[in-house]
Amino acid sequence: MCGRYAQGRAIPELLSRYAHLGGLLVATEQTLLTGYNITPGAYATVVFKDAVQAQLGPMRWGLVPRWAKSLETLKSKPINARSETADTGPMFRDAFRSGRCIVPAMGFYEWKGAKPPKQPYFIYRKGQDILSFAGLWSRWKQPDGAELVTFAILTTAANEAVKPVHDRMPCILQSESEEAEWVDPASKPARCKELLRPCPADEIALHPVSTAVNRPGYDSPELIQPLG
């Protein structure tokens, strides 16, 4: 699972990081969001590609499929999609075919412990300041004609580094070529599914962090710092 993550990098840094995708179109910086405590239902900056160009734009975390009749009747707006079944499940299969995206992140949070108070950990990839979660996105047209653009993060079984804290982790794309394949609408879904596997355990680092991260809306670089 991935229920909280840190992005925390300025838009120019993200544009430079993903320049290999072909020169990103970008919305005004006022609408692009970064932060160290991104929570379900919040807007975050996502990299996606249409038939013409890669783009950097804001999306709400919690996927609403394009076939949804209304937000009120939709039973769930999932923040995660299991990589093992996302290509066939009715909630995600359309997005898996034509709505693959990258969710830039510095790392993610997980909580260890059988019952409260659980200890939060920050989990990240060694030597890589901005890494790429594989995601799915969808554009849903509201009854008044306005569009709602949403996303979910794909997860996989935890590797040996993450497993002591949680049994799932985000799917992390492992090279620029994988990132390009993933967001390309022309890529075959079967090949894209091959990219969804745990990041090698020896590339992952983690440390306990302050329980301040438990508070939605609290945002500070201090949240990713080691406890004590």
Question: Which key terms come to mind for this protein?
Answer:
mainly beta, hypothetical protein yedk fold, four-stranded antiparallel beta sheet, 13 strands
Structural overview:
By secondary structure, this protein is mostly beta strands. Helices cover 12% and strands 32% of the residues. The strands form 2 sheets. Strands 3-4-10-9-6 form a 5-stranded mixed beta barrel. Strands 1-7-8-13 form a 4-stranded antiparallel sheet, with no helix packed on it. A hairpin with a 5-residue loop joins strand 9 and strand 10 (147-157). The model has no long low-confidence stretch (mean pLDDT 91).
What fraction of residues sit in β-strands? 25-35%
The neighbouring-strand order within the major sheet is: 3-4-10-9-6
Total count of strands: 13
Overall tally of structural domains: 1
Low-confidence parts lasting 5 or more residues at pLDDT below 50? none
Shape: globular
Mean pLDDT: 91
- Indicate the CATH architecture: Alpha-Beta Complex
Quick gist of this model?
The chain contains four helices and 13 strands. The chain is mainly beta. The mean pLDDT is 91.
Topology:
Blueprint: E1 5-6, H1 11-17, E2 25-26, E3 43-49, E4 54-61, E5 80-82, H2 93-98, E6 100-105, E7 107-112, E8 119-125, E9 131-141, E10 147-157, E11 168-170, E12 172-173, H3 176-183, H4 189-194, E13 204-208
Parallel strand pairs: 2-4, 4-10, 5-10
Antiparallel strand pairs: 1-7, 3-4, 3-6, 6-9, 7-8, 8-13, 9-10, 9-12, 10-11
